[in-house]
Amino acid sequence: MRWEMTKGRLAPALLALATGCGSTQPAQPAAPAEPFTTVVVEDGGEPEPDEEQPALEEDGSALVQAEPGEETQEEVTVDAPLEPAQQPSSSLPAVTLGRLVTPPSSSGSGFGSRVRDDRTVRHRPRTMALLRAEAQGLERLFQATPLRNPDRPQLLRRLAETYVEVAAAATIASPRQEQAARQRAIQYYALFKTQYPSQTTIDDVLYYLALAFERAGALGEARKAYYELIMKAPKSAKIPLAYLAFGEMFFEEAKADPSKWALAQAAHGEVVKYPPPQNRAACFARLRLGQIFEQTGNRPKALAEFQKARQCALNHPSLPESADVARAARGAQIRP
Description:
Serine Threonine Protein Phosphatase 5, Tetratricopeptide repeat
């Protein structure tokens, strides 16, 4: 199926993707008119994580700490089954990731990753030994917490986000453990969505569930979850980020299939309809629009978007990666 915009609307394409009514596979590669331009942003380096800081409960007490003298363990087992007695109320949904596709770099640790994920722990993972202790302690607490306990939704989220952090810490050392941790995070987010659909934080859960699918390479499931967020929580602050996710996936696919540039443009165009600073993605999306126009041969529009991106970043320096956006936009403006 060739993706085309219908009356300039993005919704039909997103609906088709989310419901499986069209192929998500890219068409046969076709070279764009010009080589694809990659924006390179110098990385100032991550701050060193605080290795001594234990995980804390809400009251400030330590959650779980390793025993003195315990050796640091490089891998974490995250696929231990729940106790049989807990299966009726707390068993996790099965996760079938299907065909995995490399996600856009902005979904993980590339340029734009801090725009898309504002959880600070995601960018400063703790030591694996500490994460292992926290995950095990939270698993035990979860199994002992009744379904109707008012603290259970918060516990579910904390479990999911602990496994997100485990996955980040295991990225280099153990790809197998990274994928297992991502799968576990998806299971806990999905369980939250199923058991607590009326929670006020359901929009956050849907967004991070979609992002977890995307980072795991399950782009079809990610699209369904982002679309569910757009449909169920249209007033959420996460809506521009959901459109950005669609735009980033189309942006990546367009490098091999130029027919996707129109969808990438439309999705990023939806993002910039939401003003900053409430919309943390506004400046980054402007930069992407400039890149899209440049790749489709419209240099005047590209320059206009680069200027808007730079001005947005200068006006809102507190937004994530604003300095990088301003620098990249400036570099694109002066490039021959």
